[in-house]
């Protein structure tokens, strides 16, 4: 597949970054073009509408999520530990695309909501292959989702706020999934 033009990449990054930093209402076509340093005509050459920008953003998120699921499925520690261990927002492109998609979903963008639901279902399916108890698999999923949520906020989560490290959460994953003997009497 040929590499997309730099202007297209810059426009998509500008749209993503505006969604993350200022929200869906601020991510106008004019604001995207200005932030990318591209003329409005250049923007319209690559993206005919704001919906086209959103669809390109969601396609990039789907691609990043597919690569993440491949890594998750192949992780030697298993999908459950991988999911929780990597559920800290570390500022990757996938993190930025994910947060941008959440902003779109919050604004009522149905395709964004569908992509987010699709991603969650695929991650949960991988966890369920390893952790057959549906309630435990869901608890692991929600642990990772909560970790991601709090790490996406400004502040000092997890250690300073809750007094819990990711390593300690992984030990809980092991206990819940039966990978480690329960240490409680």
TrEMBL record:
This is HTH tetR-type domain-containing protein. PANTHER family: HTH-TYPE TRANSCRIPTIONAL REGULATOR BETI, HTH-TYPE TRANSCRIPTIONAL REGULATOR RUTR. Transmembrane segments: none annotated. Keywords: DNA-binding, Transcription, Transcription regulation. The lineage of its organism: Bacteria, Bacillati, Actinomycetota, Actinomycetes, Micrococcales. InterPro entries: Homeodomain-like_sf (IPR009057), HTH-type_TetR-like_transc_reg (IPR050109), HTH_TetR (IPR001647), TetR_CgmR_C (IPR041479). It comes from Sinomonas humi. The keyword Endoplasmic reticulum does not apply. Residues 5-65 form the HTH tetR-type domain. Residues 28-47 bind DNA. It comes from the Bacteria.
């Amino acid at each position: 597949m040929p590499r997309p033009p730099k202007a297209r990449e810059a426009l998509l990054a500008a749209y993503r970054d505006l969604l993350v930093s200022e929200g869906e209402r601020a991510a106008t076509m004019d604001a995207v073009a200005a932030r990318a340093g591209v003329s409005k005509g250049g923007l319209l050459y690559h993206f005919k509408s704001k919906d086209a920008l959103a669809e390109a953003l969601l396609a990039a998120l789907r691609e990043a999520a597919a690569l993440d699921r491949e890594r998750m499925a192949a992780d030697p520690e298993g999908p459950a530990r991988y999911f929780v261990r990597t559920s800290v927002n570390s500022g990757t492109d996938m993190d930025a695309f994910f947060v941008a998609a959440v902003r779109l979903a919050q604004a009522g963008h149905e395709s964004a909501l569908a992509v987010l639901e699709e991603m969650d279902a695929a991650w949960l399916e991988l966890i369920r292959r390893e952790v057959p108890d549906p309630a435990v698999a869901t608890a692991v999923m929600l642990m990772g989702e909560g970790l991601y949520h709090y790490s996406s906020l400004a502040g000092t989560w997890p250690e300073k706020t809750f007094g819990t490290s990711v390593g300690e959460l992984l030990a809980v994953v092991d206990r819940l999934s039966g990978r480690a003997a329960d240490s409680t009497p």
